[in-house]
Design a protein that fits this description.
three-stranded antiparallel beta sheet; about 200 residues; 11 strands; mainly beta
C-alpha cells in the first residue's frame, strides 16, 4: 500500500511539473543589467569597449514548452577608438533604444526553471556624443541590427540571464571612414516579474 501511495505521489508531481511546462503562460516585468562591448579592431586602429548599462521592460509568452520574449530597454554604450601609434583617441558614447525578439525553450515551472533562447534585436540610436581626436569618427547608424543568444535561471519572481549579442551590420570609422567594425556585447541581466499567470 505504501509503495502504491508513493508511486501515485510521484506520478502526480511529475504530471504537474510536465503540465506546467506546456500550459499557456504570460509574464511581465522589469529588467536591468550591465554590459561589456567588444569592437573588433582593424590594422590601423584599436577599438576598445567600456562597461555600460541598460534598463527596461520585458514580456514572456509561453506554451508547449516554448517561449517568446519581446523586450524594450534603453542602453548606454561607450567605445574608445585610437590609432596604433596612440597619437590620438576618440571616445564615443551611444544611447540606444533596443527591441530584442527572442524565441526559446523553458524547462521547469513558474517558480524554478532554466531558459535558453535566441533571436534578433533592433537597435535605434537616440544620442551619440563623440570627443574627436586623431582616432577618427565612428559612424553609428540611426538603426542597427544584432543577434542575441543566451540563457537564464528563474527563481520567481527574480531571474538572472547571461547573453551574447553579435552585431550584424558594419559600422564605418576612421579618418576618412574607410575602416569597419561591428558591435558585439556581453551582458548580465537581473529581472523582476511584476505579473505572471497560468491559463487553464
Amino acid at each position: 500500500m505504501k509503495k502504491v501511495l508513493f508511486t501515485l505521489c510521484i506520478c502526480l508531481l511529475s504530471c504537474g511539473w510536465v503540465s506546467a511546462q506546456y500550459l499557456p503562460t504570460f509574464e511581465f516585468g522589469l529588467k536591468a543589467g550591465g554590459t561589456y562591448s567588444v569592437f573588433p579592431s582593424s590594422t590601423d586602429y584599436k577599438t576598445t569597449g567600456d562597461p555600460g548599462y541598460f534598463g527596461g521592460i520585458y514580456a514572456r509568452f509561453g506554451g508547449l514548452g516554448f517561449i517568446f520574449q519581446p523586450e524594450m530597454y534603453m542602453e548606454k554604450t561607450t567605445v574608445t577608438i585610437s590609432d596604433k601609434q596612440d597619437i590620438g583617441t576618440n571616445k564615443s558614447s551611444f544611447t540606444t533604444f533596443n527591441v530584442p525578439l527572442l524565441f526559446g525553450k523553458k524547462v521547469g515551472d513558474e517558480n524554478l526553471g532554466i531558459r535558453y533562447y535566441t533571436g534578433p534585436v533592433l537597435i535605434f540610436r537616440l544620442q551619440n556624443d563623440q570627443q574627436f581626436g586623431n582616432g577618427g569618427r565612428i559612424n553609428y547608424q540611426d538603426q542597427n541590427y544584432g543577434w542575441q543568444l543566451g540563457g537564464g535561471i528563474d527563481l520567481h519572481p527574480v531571474a538572472i540571464d547571461v547573453r551574447y549579442e553579435a552585431g550584424i551590420n558594419k559600422l564605418s570609422y576612421g579618418a576618412p571612414l574607410n575602416e569597419h567594425t561591428s558591435m558585439n556585447m556581453l551582458s548580465l541581466t537581473i529581472s523582476y516579474s511584476l505579473f505572471s499567470s497560468y491559463s487553464f
